[in-house]
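User: I've been trying to design a sequence by hand for this structure and keep getting stuck. Would you show me what you'd pick, starting by listing the structure so we're on the same page?

Assistant: Good idea, let's start from the same input. This is the structure you sent:
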């Protein structure tokens, strides 16, 4: 489990988990069962006792000794018990008190053994009670029920063999049974509290891990969006640079006016590309969107894009049939702008000299349709390297906006990109296109 603190023991493998853990696990993961049962061995070695463990174990040992001493005094004052039995009882009680130190390693075995020992030794009663409490804390209830029930059932026999000189027989048996039930209940309460604390701790760790993963995923998605934006912006600018630089290279005898115009386009495109790149790098460094930069283009900026392409020497025919471009939602308008921009960039690279047709139609409630079409280029076109990531990015953009995009060659040999984007009746996105309005593949 990720997010564990340093020094915490690693989860116990399934093949090393004792069979005693097959009881009711509730919501406790296997990684927490080891913390709940510290006597579990790992790699053939018991975990070392902490300072708190030593204090608790020593306190339990002292309590067992104190109860044994009180029981030994009561036996010494009973004239009906022979001296030999008194000595034997105290020896057995001393051994039982010493066995308390083994309660973490063998809680079930120790509880069973001390339950049988208490039948013949009064001084072992304290050690037996501590062993039963330890069993209730570290093992499921079915084991506690068997051992505790056996001890309660043997109480009438014990006090029949060794009756208490000060209390009636029935009162002694009832008190012994109530004491057993109290010890078991206390131990189960401690176990439930530990389970709750461990579960809350595990949930907190899971919540921290999930929050970190969500933050990383959000950051990754934001960086992917920035990278997509970088491709859409810089591809257009750098294509203009490439086209006009190539024109200057292959036409050194061009008129001065045309050379100056191409140089101006190169300078302006380089300046715009550097400014866009600077803004995107600034966003990456800040790890969050920068609202102080230039506004993102929307559908209203489509006329400027077409004018810029015409100044660069492209033949572009724009059919803008949206009466109020400003009413288009900003996200939808920006997606439509990027689709048109990428279509013009691809046409400039792969079909130079052809007339590109850009068509934008739509209305609130019907959606927004964007089409970029160019005919087949005449003559031989030098191959231009490309990875096709631009069209993939456009398809993702359209899908995320709730629409769709298709592209392909037409029957005449040209290329066409068609997209449909949602435009709700009140400027909101509608995520289901009307029947027959999706972008057909040409």
């Amino acid at each position: 489990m990720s997010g564990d603190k340093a020094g915490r023991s690693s989860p116990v493998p399934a093949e090393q988990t004792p069979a005693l853990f097959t009881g009711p696990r509730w919501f406790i993961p296997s990684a927490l069962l080891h913390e709940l049962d510290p006597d579990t061995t790992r790699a053939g070695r018991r975990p070392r006792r902490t300072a708190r463990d030593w204090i608790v174990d020593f306190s339990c040992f002292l309590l067992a000794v104190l109860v044994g001493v009180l029981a030994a005094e009561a036996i010494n004052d009973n004239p009906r018990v022979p001296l030999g039995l008194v000595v034997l009882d105290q020896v057995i009680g001393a051994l039982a008190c010493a066995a308390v130190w083994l309660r973490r390693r063998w809680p079930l075995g120790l509880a069973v053994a001390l339950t049988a020992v208490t039948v013949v030794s009064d001084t072992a009663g304290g050690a037996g009670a501590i062993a039963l409490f330890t069993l209730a804390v570290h093992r499921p209830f079915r084991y506690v029920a068997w051992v505790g029930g056996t001890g309660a059932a043997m109480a009438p026999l014990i006090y029949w063999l060794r009756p208490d000189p000060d209390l009636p027989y029935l009162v002694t048996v009832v008190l012994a049974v109530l004491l057993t039930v109290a010890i078991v209940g206390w131990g189960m309460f401690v176990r439930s509290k530990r389970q709750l604390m461990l579960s809350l701790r595990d949930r907190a760790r899971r919540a921290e891990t999930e929050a970190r993963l969500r933050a990383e995923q959000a950051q990754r998605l934001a960086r992917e969006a920035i990278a997509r934006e970088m491709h859409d912006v810089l591809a257009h600018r750098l294509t203009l640079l490439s086209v006009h630089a190539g024109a200057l290279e292959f036409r050194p005898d061009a008129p001065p006016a045309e050379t100056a115009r191409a140089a101006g386009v190169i300078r302006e495109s380089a300046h715009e590309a550097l400014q866009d790149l600077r803004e995107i790098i600034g966003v990456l460094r800040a790890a969050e969107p920068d609202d102080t930069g230039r506004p993102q283009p929307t559908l209203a900026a489509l006329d400027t894009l077409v004018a810029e392409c015409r100044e660069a020497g492209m033949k572009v025919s724009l059919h803008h049939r949206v009466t109020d471009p400003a009413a288009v939602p900003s996200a939808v308008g920006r997606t439509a702008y990027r689709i048109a921009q990428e279509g013009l960039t691809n046409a400039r690279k792969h079909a130079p000299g052809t007339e590109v047709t850009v068509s934008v139609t739509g209305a609130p409630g019907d959606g927004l349709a964007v089409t970029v079409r160019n005919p087949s280029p005449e003559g031989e076109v030098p191959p231009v390297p490309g990875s096709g990531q631009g069209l993939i990015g456009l398809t993702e953009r359209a899908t995320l906006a709730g629409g769709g995009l298709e592209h392909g060659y037409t029957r005449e040999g040209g290329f066409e990109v068609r997209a449909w984007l949602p435009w709700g009746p009140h400027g909101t996105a509608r995520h289901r296109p009307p029947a027959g309005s999706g972008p057909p593949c040409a």
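That's my pick for every position. To get oriented when you compare it with your attempt: The chain has a mean pLDDT of 75. The first helix runs from residue 30 to 36.
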